[in-house]
């Protein structure tokens, strides 16, 4: 290679002067920049595709209900506490007595009260007290089996006691947080969702957004829905709309505790999926 061609030659041509350029090392070095640019361009293209896909995915709308008008979601009712397990009552079987048979007195022996005295007193021997009940006097009769004798005739027709009074039943007017049997909308949760969708009016805003209103109320013993309270406000317009529909609700199936109807607190979240104008 002459001096003039050296100034216009590539470094690789100078290194591989008078050498075998068909060898792989020359080709690898010659095309290195081209392969490097291809790899960098491919990497940037892949990153751009991933960014575009993620941006489209972020714009998808969350689907709550495929229905017209306001979207309503309902939270499940809290799990009521387990019912109180009642111990089984074992009936006491009383022996049947023959009302027609003559009543036979038990053999008793007089209870001797110990008295400190100088005189000698007679105490009945232990053998004489066998099979006899302790009484106020000593008399003969049927041998005692150790049971206390009944004061009636066993037929249920005794004189009784007219002074026994039945305690008054105290009415439970408190409001329970939970009950053994929670109140239920007539027809169940699905019927309540249909009722809300039918009666709630759509509220249009300038921007698309999701609004949640949490309302608390009381289902009394008659099933009437009263005592409305907004726990989580979604705005005055949304709160008024929810209260308007809640006041139109029919009577619920009331809750019960230990077999008695009780007043129970209930909470209902209503979610509006609004659309922009």
Write the layout of secondary structure elements.
Elements: H1 3-7, H2 11-15, H3 24-30, H4 32-58, E1 108-110, E2 133-135, E3 175-176, H5 189-199, E4 209-219, E5 225-232, H6 236-246, E6 255-257, E7 260-274
Parallel strand pairs: 1-2, 3-7
Antiparallel strand pairs: 4-5, 4-7, 6-7
Domain TonB C-terminal: 212-273
Subcellular location: Cell inner membrane
Transmembrane segments: 36-56
Describe the structure.
The chain has helices spanning 3-7, 11-15, 24-30, 32-58, 189-199, 236-246, and strands at 108-110, 133-135, 175-176, 209-219, 225-232, 255-257, 260-274. With 277 residues, the chain is an alpha/beta fold. Among the domains are: 3-58, no CATH class; 105-141, no CATH class; 175-274, 2-Layer Sandwich (TolA/TonB C-terminal domain). The longest helix has 27 residues, at 32-58. Residues 135-169 are annotated as: Disordered. Belongs to the TonB family. InterPro entries: TonB-dependent_transducer, TonB/TolA_C, TonB_C.
Largest sheet: 5 strands, mixed
SS-derived structural category: alpha/beta
Radius of gyration: 48 Å
Helix proportion of residues, in percent?
Answer: 10-25%
Tell me the span between the first and last alpha carbons: 79 Å
The total count of strands amounts to 7
CATH topology of the domain at 175-274: TolA/TonB C-terminal domain
Query: How many separate helices?
Result: 6
Overall mean pLDDT score? 75
Q: Shape from CA axes?
A: elongated
Order of helices and strands: HHHHEEEHEEHEE
User: In the CATH hierarchy, what is the architecture of the domain at 175-274 at level 2?
Assistant: 2-Layer Sandwich
Hey, roughly how much beta strand do the residues contain? Answer: 15-25%
CATH class of the domain at 175-274: Alpha Beta
Poorly predicted parts: 60-71, 74-79
